[in-house]
């Protein structure tokens, strides 16, 4: 078997709803809390969570997208430069409670860069991390999530892909085996 | 993923349309960065850049230095006035001595056309041309295109007139290449003594009537009369030049449409452009300066990515 479904559309929906309720437990009405999705793939998780939270709470909540390209630690260590995506944080994060959001937590390097990028916008009172899929035991840095959709055990040669209805045509989370991953990269 | 097709930025003439679009797209991201509370990113922590200026400059030099510092590069500055060039050292020797101090990139302004191209063939570091005599000033053309795109949404299909001292202007040549590669139509306008012969071979229109040119265009780029490069008289007097090719509010308001006014600086108020035009709502002169930092960050970032570790 080359690829395996970790979460199907129904399970993904349930997981997102559970994460939303967990967020409300901590952040109640979100008056002082902001969702920040990491580009390029964390923004889709953020959009879904924002929609669910707003329908539960009955009012809009603040959210933004953050690009971390210029804060990455692998500039000039790849063959081609990393192209940035759009950042839109057109509000102050000073003294706010920030929930940083990404789809997959693997080595932790993206989150490290995300924290650095976030702090160029000011000094939040708190930063929490929400992750849809946590690939545990694969960290390069001491970074752990506060909210986790699902924890999976994977090999570093495998790849986890979160797919969305609006992008790939279907909501699902897939695990590609080593062979499938290598074939995709060829 | 995309990257630049060149290793040095010596002139717009060497760039492809894809290169220019890549630079403009990256600059848009950097413009967002320089409007944050903390305007600095760590990408170029391990890069050292020398700014080597054999000619005077205020804006360009400050702009390059700010761009480098906001990318976290280490910066050394050098100006010919206070250097050993006066003692008879050659350009390549001067630069190689700077490179011996482990410098990865050289930003150079030089009075001789082709100096940047020459240097890029002689040394190992990346070279960015910050103006070489009357030849090219690529980062100015890129920031001009970026400013037009920001104001009008696109450069493609727009009509741009460059007014003034085309003969001595590196800004004019780089702008012609850059705007044409992006699909704009370009006209040059000025007294016939200041328009190079055969410039129509570059595919530009030529006019000697300012009103006619302004009625045609969407954007007017007003250039400074470069008296320091004029060894003979090209027109009878500055006053006569101002009356025929200077843009004042009365002329601007009498046009049948609203056009955008640009100027690469430094402005000679009352000569090529009157004070009330320079400070009017149609003028994007200060936007150009802000965009200059973003464009230079993009150029340096994209070239630095090609430096071997």
Secondary structure topology:
The complex is a heterodimer of chains A (186) and B (309).
Chain A: E1 3-7, H1 9-27, E2 33-38, H2 42-57, E3 62-66, E4 97-105, H3 109-119, E5 126-136, E6 147-153, E7 159-163, E8 172-176, H4 178-185
Parallel strand pairs in A: 2-3, 2-4, 4-5, 5-6
Antiparallel strand pairs in A: 1-8, 7-8
Helix pairs in contact in A: 1-2
Chain B: H1 17-33, E1 48-53, H2 59-70, E2 74-79, H3 91-99, E3 105-110, H4 115-122, E4 126-132, H5 138-152, E5 159-163, H6 170-181, E6 185-189, E7 205-207, H7 210-216, E8 219-222, H8 238-245, H9 249-253, E9 260-262, H10 275-278, H11 285-304
Parallel strand pairs in B: 1-2, 1-3, 3-4, 5-6, 5-8, 6-7, 8-9
Give a quick precis of the structure.
The complex is a heterodimer of chains A (186) and B (309). Chain A has 186 residues and is an alpha/beta fold.
Question: What does it look like?
Answer:
The complex is a heterodimer of chains A (186) and B (309). The mean pLDDT of chain A is 93. Chain A is α/β, with parallel strands linked by helices. Chain A is globular and about 45 Å long. Chain A has helices at 9-27, 42-57, 109-119, 178-185; strands at 3-7, 33-38, 62-66, 97-105, 126-136, 147-153, 159-163, 172-176. In chain A, helix 1 (9-27) packs across helix 2. In chain A, the strands form 2 sheets. Chain A has a 5-stranded parallel beta sheet, sandwiched between helices. In chain A, strands 1-8-7 form a 3-stranded antiparallel beta sheet. Chain A is built from 4 helices and 8 strands. In chain A, strand 4, helix 3 (109-119) and strand 5 (126-136) form a beta-alpha-beta unit. Chain A starts with a strand and ends with a helix. Chain B has helices spanning 17-33, 59-70, 91-99, 115-122, 138-152, 170-181, 210-216, 238-245, 249-253, 275-278, 285-304, and strands at residues 48-53, 74-79, 105-110, 126-132, 159-163, 185-189, 205-207, 219-222, 260-262. In chain B, 38% of the residues lie in helices and 15% in strands. Chain B is globular. In chain B, the strands form 2 sheets. A 5-stranded parallel beta sheet of chain B has the order 7-6-5-8-9, sandwiched between helices. A 4-stranded parallel beta sheet of chain B has the order 2-1-3-4, sandwiched between helices. Chain B starts with 16 loop residues before the first helix and ends in a 5-residue tail after the last helix. Chain B is an alpha/beta fold and 309 residues long. At the A-B interface, loops of A face helix 1 and helix 11 of B.
